[in-house]
Amino acid sequence: MDYRLRTVATVLAVALLASGPAFAQSQSQSAPDADADWEVPRLADGQPDLQGYWTTQTFTPMERPEYLGDKAFYTEEEFAQLQSQLTVDGADPLARFVIEIADPEERERVLDQTHRDESYVHYDNAIWLATRVPKGLSTRRTSLIVDPPNGRIPPRTEEARARAAARRAARGDRGPFDGYELRPLSERCIYYGYNGPPLQPPSYNDIHQIFQTPTHVVIFTEQNNNPPRIIPVDGRPPIPEDIRLWPGDSRGRWEGDTLVVETSNFNDKSAWQGSSRGLKVVERFTRVADDQIHFTFTVEDPATWDRPWSAEIPLMSTEGPMYEYACHEGNHDIRHIQEVYRNIELQEAAARP
Questions:
Q1: How far apart, in whole angstroms, are the C-alpha atoms of residue 296 and residue 286?
Q2: CB-based contacts of 79: which residues, under 8 Å, 6+ apart?
Q3: 149-189 pLDDT tens trace
Q4: How many angstroms separate the CA atoms of 265 and 249, rounded?
Q5: Dihedral pair phi/psi, residue 13, rounded to 5°
Q6: What is the 3-state secondary structure (H, E, C) of 52-96?
Q7: Which helix (H) or strand (E) holds 209?
Q8: How many CA within 13 A on the CB side of residue 349?
Q9: Can you tell me the distance from the alpha carbon of 293 to that of 347, in angstroms, rounded to the nearest whole number?
Q10: pTM of the model
Q11: pLDDT tens-digit profile of 89-101?
């Protein structure tokens, strides 16, 4: 995958406003204590300045590992042990699943890429994906989900399970590589669910650049197949119900110093976490320090879950620049993915008696 400097960022910066100062990236254990002398930086129109480069990088999982039960927070000792393991030189930044491993020794072994299965063909993730500040835990929380209290996504409703069954039935007995349309939306360079809304931590390329004007807020994510999110904050009404978009339709407003973004009008194809076109997302961005935005989201979809659920994801300041996420350079590589598996099928057929 070819990464080139994303010139769109420069165009947006000129067209909207120059981005705010970028502060050194840090990893916070929890929300910072209130500083009596700290004041929210503001733009000329008086609104809080959210501009700059921010990262959501973290090993903290969306859902609490089952072996932790009702444990909502790690102890200081547990947190320190995990941080030392996750941020050690050579650790694989893509190995987000290691937090699900209860045994510390096994967790450490898996993080070390020299113990990978020899059949796994990939580049050294620690070389290509490691950041200036190594990825660790973002807080002492055991999950990004804060509600329900068990740190887990609520079970899907019968209606949601029926939708999933219908999708499987439509696919029939076709294998995952039988056609390009069966490949994941992200592989086809159409849609990344974690780009938002709601905004979530991707596995890598996790920088988000925020621009502001008096009438709009723009969130531009480095690893993105869609255009930047351009969010009106001028009170205009949502688009008509019959217009459906991959990222939905976002409308923002200021509640004091908090930016509140409500999104609806999703299409029937993204099915994020199994959701329906009735998904509603509310995101809240509050600048709480020079190097941190407190970000939360709540999702609601009665056709999928019998209750709303919420997550808390720290946005920490980081340095630019951002780079272009080319995604197969226009998705041309989907042809090669299909060619490889057609060749595998021919080899398997030739080997059969």
A1: 9
A2: 29, 137, 140
A3: 999 999 999 999 999 999 999 988 888 888 888 888 888 88
A4: 6
A5: -60, -40
A6: EEEECCCCCCCCCCHHHCCCCECCHHHHHHHHHHHCCCCECCCCH
A7: strand 207-212
A8: 6
A9: 53
A10: 0.85
A11: 888 888 888 899 9
